[in-house]
Give the backbone structure.
Amino acid sequence: MGIFSRKSKLKAEPPPMRVEKVVVPSKPRTTLRPTRSLPASASSSSHLSPSAPIPPKRRRRHSTPPSSDEKGRARLKRKVATSSTSRDSPAFGNDSESDEEDGDPFKKRLRRADARTVDVNRRVRHKKAFGDTVREPRIIHAADRASRATGCPPITGAKDDEVAIELQYPSRCARERYELVWQKEKIDAVKDILTVLEHVAETYLTEAESRPFIDHNASFKRQMERASTENYRDVPVFRSALANYNKKLLELVEDGTVAKNLDKIHHLPPSLVSFILSQVYDRVVAPHVDSLNKYKNGSDNVYGELLHPFATHILVQQTKMTSDQVFVDLGSGVGNVVLQAALEIGCRSYGCEMVENLCNLAEEQEKEFRSRCLLWGVNPGRVHLERGDLRANKKIQDVLKTADVVLVNNKAFTPDLNAALVNMFLDLKPGCKIISLASFLYAGNKNAINDVASSILDVDTFSYQKDWVSWSGQDGQYYISTRKGAESLSP
């Protein structure tokens, strides 16, 4: 993560080189390419490439019932994912922007290796987070989940009067309360704080502004890392470095630096999106994770989750959603992908769920999500969560008429429910994309093609990577169905 480069020695100018073009026969590719269930135009994506580090496993509703081994592997008592970005690899940005644009070094720093279309209508900064007064977001503090009061022992070397600390976020919001404790399957305060610091430096600050925060040799992060190593615990040094970090970041918030930088960007890096969502999940769902495994065999209510990299690939790379579009998740479980679409894309995001326990957790997640986005100073799209059977929900039926992307994890849906969904898709507008884990062409019956589906949908088949879903560590197939236009429909 070096910031400074060495000066190269002066050398004599090399003699001119002769360049010739040589045609090299291409070798056959073995990469899996999308296959068609029905004839249609060629797909633009031939294989999957993860766009963010894979976070810990989580579950989303409607998956194949896992085996006992898979259940243990997919338990939702998780550790928070920490993903760092090299200082030579900017956290986010767009290759289509000119390097000379405005001569702004911050914009130049925001380049990514994977090109992403700039959504100029997306406004990332949360205006309420940078007002004149300090706001009190109603978050679940880390100390509410991991503290001496909840039975967690202090980290080695910490006295009882030293465990309580606070963390400043990049906004004019009150700080989050932490305690320097550690217990398995609880929030790791030190790890969480270091990850927050890294995201703040990489996303909210220019390279020059970030040096006091993450410079390898002398920075707040380096001081905290040294003070918290297993063989050398120095709690007073850690607390001092944290206090200096809090003070410096607040100065940059109050003088307008952070707000100014956020106004120059139009999307958040996937690693930050994943981390914010993980913070929400760990504070709301993780304490109740065992309740997610309770379902009736043979029903439509089997639970499983699509993980962050999978959702990012679908939303950003394949459907290329923008903030003026509409996303709908039919069978949204605890609302993970609904929240991710709102944060990562900034679009209107809808979910519908019928299992009461999942609905309750989804609504609690949405509350924490709104407050935590304010804490981070970022503005998500509007989130709408509906309860009840999606086949009878009038609001969802109306929203489907305007939807641009629909997600249905129908891996374990009954044939009747899959067939009912195909009939609902008659109201989708031409071009709407449907992402599903089972093909609607067969609507749950592998031996007979659904005539309605075959007449209104063009279907592409893709493979997802291992560890992209909660119910299996293996890869698998998913489908993107496109609603045909009126001129394409069979008579």
The mean pLDDT is 80. The chain has 15 helices and twelve strands. The two ends are 61 Å apart (CA to CA).
